[in-house]
Structures are given as C-alpha cells and as structure tokens.
Design brief:
The chain is of the alpha+beta class. It has helices at 12-18, 24-33, 75-89, 105-111; strands spanning 2-6, 36-41, 44-54, 58-66, 94-100, 115-120, 132-138. The chain has a seven-stranded mixed β-sheet, with helices on both faces. Strand 4 (58-66), helix 3 and strand 5 (94-100) form a beta-alpha-beta unit.
Length: 140
C-alpha cells in the first residue's frame, strides 16, 4: 500500500539518501512551504518529489526520484500525478519540469503527457553539462 504526504522535518535522513543536490537550508524551506512530497510503501519512504515556482508563478518539478530498488512499480507516476492534482487544486493550469538529454527521464515525462518546450545549455568552464530539456503539460 502506498501513501503520499508532504515532506516533514522527520523525513530529513531519508530525503538526503536520494537527494544530494538540496542544501539543508533549502530542505527546511521545502518543509515549511510544502513544496515537497514523500511516497511511502507500507509506511517506508521510497520516493520523493520537490518543486518550486518558476517565474514565481508556474509549478516546476525540480526533482522526482524513486529509490533504485523500488523503481518500475508506478511510484513515479503516482507522485507526479499527485503533484499535478495538488497544483491544479491551487489554481495552476500547467506545469513544467526538466531533465538532461542524457537521462532517460525524458521518456517517462513524455509518456505522461509532457511535451518538449525548450532547452538550456550551460557551457561555462567547470560547470558544463549536457543540455537540459524543458517539458510542459497542461494539468486538468
């Protein structure tokens, strides 16, 4: 049985096993602003989703990750759909996300109705990375 809840301070240890990009200060911000979720399988945390507001007015999923041992069970879809419903209930009509071109997540998002809407290329020395694809979806 799965359950999705807003991230809480008590989720901190689990969170940082999957998310190595967020600072502790930003984790506290996600908790306080309810901009993160934890998916539990039989009361054990196995996945997370965090977001912010792009342009301060557009929901932007900044990370969705399911523990490697629990992938391919539909948990990513559950988290994303839960987030979309929450965003719709808050009055938003569309959502954004992104992924690097060398990651397979782009196929996951497209399968769930997201379409390409642009890209970002960072070529500054010491910060280079493959292009980031931006994807968009009207949420209903």
């Amino acid at each position: 049985m799965t359950n999705i809840k807003y991230v809480e301070m008590g989720d901190k240890e689990f969170w940082f096993t999957l998310d190595r990009h967020l600072s502790e200060k930003e984790f506290e911000t996600k908790v306080n602003s309810k901009q993160g979720y934890v998916l539990l399988e039989n009361d054990k945390p196995v996945g997370l989703l965090r977001y912010n507001l792009f342009w301060d007015n557009t929901p932007f999923c900044t990370m969705l990750f399911i523990d490697w041992n629990c992938q391919k069970r539909g948990y990513g879809r559950q988290l994303l759909e839960h987030w979309e419903k929450d965003m719709k209930s808050q009055g938003y009509d569309f959502a954004l996300t992104s992924t690097r071109v060398d990651e397979s997540a782009q196929h996951f998002y497209r399968k769930l109705g997201y379409k390409d809407c642009g890209g970002l290329l960072i070529d500054i020395p010491n910060y280079e990375q493959p292009m980031e694809i931006f994807l968009i979806k009207r949420i209903s």
